[in-house]
Amino acid sequence: MNRTFLLLKTQAVNYFSLNEIFGQHGGKRGPVFITAAGIFTLLLFLGGYNVLTAAALVSMGQQDMIPAYMVAVSSFIILVFTLLRSNGILFGSRDFEMLCALPLEAGEVISSKFGFLYLINLAFSVLFMVPAGVVWLTGTRGHGVPFLFYLVSVFFVPLIPMCAASAAGFVITLLSAGSRRKNLLSLIFSFGALGLLLGAGIYGMYGGVKEGSLGTVLAGQIGRLYPLSSWFRYPHRLSVLWNVVFWFVSVLAFWVFVRITAVHYTRLNAILLQNHASAAGKANFMRRSSFAAMYRKELGRYFGSYLYVLNTGLGVVCLLVVCGAICVIPPEKLGGYAGIEDAVSFFGQYAPLIVAAMLSLSCPAASSVSLEGKNIWILQSVPLPFRTFLNSKIAVTLSLHAVGYLTALPVFILRFRMDGARLAALIVIPAVYSIFTAVQGICINCCFPRFDWDNEMVVIKQSMAVILSGVTGMLCVAAPAILHWFFRLPLGMVLWGWAGILLCVSGLLYRKACQTKII
Amino acid sequence: MLEIQHLTKIYPGGKKAVDDLSLNVRAGEICGFIGANGAGKTSTIKAVVGIHGFEQGEILIHGKSIRTHPLECKRQMAYIPDNPDLYEHLTGYQYINFIADIYRVSSEERRKRVERYGELFEMTPSLGNVITSYSHGMKQRTAIIAALVHAPSLLILDEPFVGLDPKGAFRLKQIMQELVEAGGAIFFSTHVLEVAEKLCSRIAMVKGGRLVVAGDTDKVKGDHSLESVFMEVQKHE
Question: N or C: which end of chain A has fewer CB within 10 A?
């Protein structure tokens, strides 16, 4: 068997715990199976959503835009996801030392790691392109040959965005590798790259010329989001040849990426996995409460992990970026970028929900218990009250939220018209959401802890607790909006009522979390 | 078989972990690498097996440089780290097969070796289970079996006896003896000086990244115990 394929297969079996899911090998099957079922359900929803999107394009008479639209959107999502994942899978993975001691070429290792990322991202291109492609095929006549080319392209679409994002990850790693504060630098660069990417995406979709027919506007938007998507429009029979060009360019991008990174791979990983001895600190024998000690430990754990901050801090960082944008860009123009009319009134009315939504996206608590990993024995063997254990983890999430919340409050108050009621809602509602997010995250993680991980990405991004907590957070943000939009209930009343419910549920969940036996 | 010539390893930030270290391990020798915590043992071992690069010097395995011919060198040796980080969601058999595939070991040979070492370390009943369900000692035994599956001529071990029960440690010593009798060589670090004294034909002591004592075990310890030599070295060098 080819060694790259062998490595890829081994990593996939290990990373997805396939032995536990499909076999009886003495591992714990239940929790892993539930996680797999959760991911499958999410993927099913995503596929369904894309069918609806494609059907909407058909109903607007824009069915010919479906292939280009799906290629552009799936490529954009793959780009963002790879940027979030590449450091941890491609660079700085825990099995690096073991693989280094084996007779393997750097190119084989990096190809297998890239192949593994590809497998994950292929799910996105399949889920976006295949269901929508079927709608495209059934909604039009005579697209059999282009459909076949489009279907084959599903396997090539992830390559270019993955190469671009991995190259960005590679450069970020390279730039920050030599620094003592490499985590901080990596985070700044990564968030900067994500901000640029999202900004470019939003500008591409909404910032261009908006005159002309719906088809022209849509084609322009899709083209700006991902220029290569224009190769997936089929005005005449020979247009399918552009798909062949796309396959060639994709494979070439992959080949060039592997060649370049293989040269520096070993050195870069060695630097990444080395821990710098920090400057000799003064001995500190100050006595602290057990909560303070745990809180300091949790905070250190949080900021000590690049992947943890990057994936769980995104909501707060987005909020800070929005605040920055609100400060420098007139609200009307900002609304124009996002396709919102009367932005001043919109932001004034929905400010509590906007802030709450972004805080809900950041929930370090949902993976904080699992992240104790094999070190859980330390806390299990010391006389630490379980409430203190929980409170310290909740406190870290609240502290993170506080940064976004305390920045957003003055910005929103100063920039938008707010009467007393709106002001009170802006102060109270996000705070309630913040508490709820932290408590539901910790409670779910206590119910579904996972300590047997060997790559923290497993618990940070795709553990049962994180998925459940993320879905719960999204539903809780969507609920008042749905009640307001579909049932015509006054937003203020809905928000206050919902906040009351969330507070009560938070109390119950906290009690439930305290009853679990983790330590 | 293993030649370390003027090895110097400096970590980013300027810390010199290994300083001009030269050492030879010949076929048929077991060389014990001894030093206090932070003396540079693991840094040297990681440089030997190709995990770490190094700033100066050369490391030769069977006369070939680990820098310029890493694959040829690695094919000749096996490395067992002090705390084996295995692919925990694979079964023991899957992990060993993975390593055997990397080294291109034939089915017949791997079956023979896995059966033999599995029995020897009493791991056969557990090798079908996922590694997450293993104790530390069982992981260590699995790492040893995987390391031996391609019959290496040079075995590099970092604190191999940590986590092994007396029976496991006895079996490992037995295998080490067999390997050198068959013309192989072993270079291993340890803090268990009694084991080093009985097992090793050569001893190398390192302090602050520098090799301070090296030679045949009998000559190094003379009429004293290895422990007293070690304590003396720590005091005076």
Answer: N
Nearest to A103 among B46, B71, B88 (CB): B71
**Domain shared by A300 and A215, yes or no:** no
Determine the angle formed by the axes of helices A491-515 and A464-487, rounding to 10 degrees. Answer: 160
Looking at the structure, tell me whether residues A51 and A140 fall in a common domain. Answer: yes
**Chain B (129-158) residues lying within 8 Å, Cβ to Cβ, of chain A:** 129-130, 132-133
- A178 and A266 share one domain: yes
Q: Which of A261, A442, A270 is nearest to B47 (CA)?
A: A270
Q: From the CA of B218, how many Å to the nearest CA of chain A?
A: 32
A102 contacts in chain B (CB < 8 Å): 74, 99, 102-103
Confidence of residue B73 (pLDDT cuts 50, 70, 90): confident
Asked whether residue A278 is assigned to any structural domain, the reply reads no
Confidence of residue A245 (pLDDT cuts 50, 70, 90): very high
| Single residue among A244, A273, A302 that ends a domain in this structure | A273
A-chain residues near B136 (CB < 8 A)? none
Write the DSSP assignment of A232-283 as a string of letters.
G--SSGGGHHHHHHHHHHHHHHHHHHHHHHHHHHHHHHHHHHPPPPPP-PPP
Please give the mean pLDDT across all residues of chain A. 84
pLDDT tens digit sequence for A344-386: 888 888 999 999 999 999 999 999 999 998 878 778 777 788 8
Averaged pLDDT for residues A398-416: 93
Separation of alpha carbons A480 and A66, rounded Å: 32
CB proximity under 8 Å: B 85-114 to A: 85-91, 94, 98-99, 101-103
- Domain identity same for A379 and A439: yes
B133/B126 Cα distance (integer angstroms): 9
pLDDT of residue A278: 45
How confident is the model at residue A96, as a pLDDT? 81
- Domain with A340 in it: 290-515
ipTM of the complex: 0.70
CA distance A500 to A511: 17
Question: Which of the residue ranges A16-25, A404-413, A494-503 would you say has the lowest mean pLDDT?
Answer: A16-25
Segment holding A456, helix H or strand E: helix A456-462
The last residue of a domain, from among A223, A239, A273: A273
> Helix %, strand %, coil % for chain A, to 5?
80, 0, 20
Reference B57, options B101, B113, B17, B104; nearest CA is: B17
**Number of domains comprising chain A:** 2
By the CB < 8 Å criterion, does B70 face chain A?
yes
Do A328 and A201 share a structural domain?
no
Based on the domain organization, do A312 and A268 belong to the same domain?
no
The residue of chain A with its CA nearest to that of B96 is: A10
Distance from CA of B222 to the nearest CA of A (A): 36
- Asked if the C-beta of A382 comes within 8 angstroms of chain B's C-beta atoms, the answer is no
DSSP B223: T
Q: Which domains does chain B have, with CATH numbers?
A: 2-83+154-236 (3.40.50.300)
Give pLDDT, residue A28: 56
Global model pTM greater than 0.95:
no
Given a cut of 50, whether residue A10 has pLDDT beyond it is: yes
- Binary contact (B98, A6; C-beta < 8 A): yes
Rounded mean pLDDT of chain B?
Answer: 88
* Residues 444-473 of chain A whose Cβ lies under 8 A from any Cβ of chain B: 452, 454
Same structural domain for residues A310 and A459?
yes
pLDDT band at A30 (very low <50, low <70, confident <90, very high): low
> At B189, which helix (H) or strand (E)?
strand B185-189
Least confident of A7-16, A17-26, A78-87: A17-26
For chain B, say whether A101 makes contact (Cβ under 8 Å).
Answer: yes
**Mean pLDDT value of segment A7-32:** 72
How many Cβ atoms are within 10 Å of A228's Cβ, its own excluded?
A: 19
Q: Does A17 touch chain B (CB under 8 A)?
A: yes
Chain B interface includes A286 (CB < 8 A):
no
Asked whether residue A282 is assigned to any structural domain, the reply reads no
Q: Do A98 and B129 make contact, defined as CB atoms within 8 angstroms?
A: no
Residue A277 has pLDDT above 50, yes or no: no
- Shared domain for A268 and A295, answered yes or no, is no
With respect to residue A284, please indicate whether it lies within any of the assigned structural domains.
no
